[in-house]
Write a structure and sequence with these properties.
Order of helices and strands: HHHHHHH
Shape: elongated
Structural class: mainly alpha
Distance between the termini: 92 Å
Number of helices: 7
Strand content: under 5%
Radius of gyration: 35 Å
C-alpha cells in the first residue's frame, strides 16, 4: 500500500516480454527500455534526416529528367503525339478543335501581316493614304469578328454532335485562339491539310 511508485514502475518494466514489442504499444504502457540521452536521440534524428545521396546529384538527376520531358514534349508538339502533349492540348475534343481550324482558311490568321501593311500605310504623311489605312483597319476587324463568329457556331455544333458526353470546357476558345496564329507557327503542328475535313 505504501510502496513507492518508482518500485512499481521497475516491477512493471521487468514483466514486459520481447513478444509485445512487435505489437503496437499502448501510449500509457511503460517502454521497457531506458530513455536515450539527448545527444544520442539528436544524432539518430540527424542520421535519419540526412539524405543518402548528395544534393548536387539529386538536382542534376532532376534537371536531366526535366530536359528529357521537355524534349519529348517538343517532339510531340511537332508530331501530334497525344501521350507527351501539354495538358492544354490533350484530349479528343482539343484535337478536333485543332483539326477543325487547320482544315480551313481563316481570315484571323492573316491579321498580323495585314496589321503590318496597315501600320506602314498609316505612317505615310499623305492624308488620303492615312484615311484609307483607317478604313482598312475597320474593315479587317469587322471581317475577322464575322469570320470568328461563324467558326465559333459551326465548331460548337459539330462538337456537340461528335462529343455529346465529353467535357468541352475551353475548347471553343482554344480553337479560336489558334485561328489568330499563322498556320506554319501553330503548335502542335497541323495534322490535316486545308480542305480536308476532320
Amino acid at each position: 500500500m505504501f510502496r513507492s511508485r518508482a518500485n512499481e514502475e521497475k516491477v512493471r518494466t521487468s514483466k514486459v516480454t520481447p513478444d509485445l514489442s512487435k505489437q503496437p504499444r499502448d501510449p500509457q504502457a511503460p517502454k521497457g527500455r531506458p530513455t536515450p540521452k539527448r545527444n544520442d536521440a539528436q544524432s539518430q534524428r540527424r542520421r535519419a534526416v540526412t539524405p543518402t545521396t548528395d544534393r548536387k546529384e539529386a538536382s542534376k538527376r532532376q534537371r536531366e529528367a526535366r530536359r528529357a520531358d521537355m524534349a519529348k514534349q517538343r517532339e510531340a508538339l511537332a508530331t501530334g503525339d497525344e501521350r507527351y502533349l501539354p495538358a492544354r492540348d490533350k484530349g479528343p475534343v482539343r484535337r478536333f478543335a485543332r483539326d477543325y481550324v487547320d482544315s480551313r482558311w481563316c481570315l484571323a490568321e492573316f491579321f498580323l501581316p495585314l496589321a503590318v501593311v496597315i501600320l506602314v500605310l498609316s505612317v505615310i504623311q499623305v492624308p488620303g493614304i492615312q484615311s484609307i489605312a483607317l478604313l482598312l483597319w475597320l474593315i479587317v476587324i469587322v471581317l475577322i469578328i464575322i469570320d470568328s463568329a461563324g467558326i465559333w457556331f459551326r465548331m460548337r455544333k459539330q462538337m456537340n454532335e461528335r462529343f455529346p458526353n465529353e467535357p468541352k470546357g475551353g475548347a471553343l476558345a482554344y480553337g479560336l485562339m489558334r485561328t489568330l496564329q499563322m498556320r506554319r507557327m501553330r503548335l502542335p503542328k497541323p495534322q490535316v491539310k486545308r480542305g480536308e475535313r476532320p
